[in-house]
Amino acid sequence: MLLLLLLLLLLLLLLLLLLLLLLLLLLILLLLLLLLLLLLLLLLLLLLLLLLLVLLLLLLLLLLLLLLLLLLLLLLLLLLLLLLLLLLLLLLLLLLLLLLLLLLLLLLLLLLHHHHHHYTTTTPPLQQHHHHHHHRSQ
Questions:
Q1: Cα angle at 137 between 132 and 138, to 5 degrees?
Q2: What is the mean pLDDT of residues 130-135?
Q3: Nearest to 101 by CA among 93, 112, 90
Q4: CA distance 47 to 54
Q5: What pLDDT, on a 0 to 100 scale, did the predictor assign at position 1?
Q6: Distance (Å, rounded) from C-alpha 72 to C-alpha 68?
């Protein structure tokens, strides 16, 4: 009878040990699961951070592009203005040239009018002289 009781006690002890071991295993598993969850959370956080960084970079790039476009537009406007100014200057120069030409023409006309008689008398002797020279050389 005593022996049976001892055996039963031993069995109970073994069962208790087994239960303890199982509990320990469960605890370790739970800990592992928690660790995994933590790791996953960390990964997710990292991914979110990366996404945020990429978005920020994209925004910065967009801003830079916009700034560049604005600068280009400004440059184009400046160039257009310069071209317009140049055109205006050219037009002014042309007008001045035309005025000068008109003045010169007027002066020439006046001069011709004054020296008209004199001019006609000087040409025939010159032609004669040239003709005479030509004849002599032949």
A1: 100
A2: 56
A3: 93
A4: 10
A5: 81
A6: 6
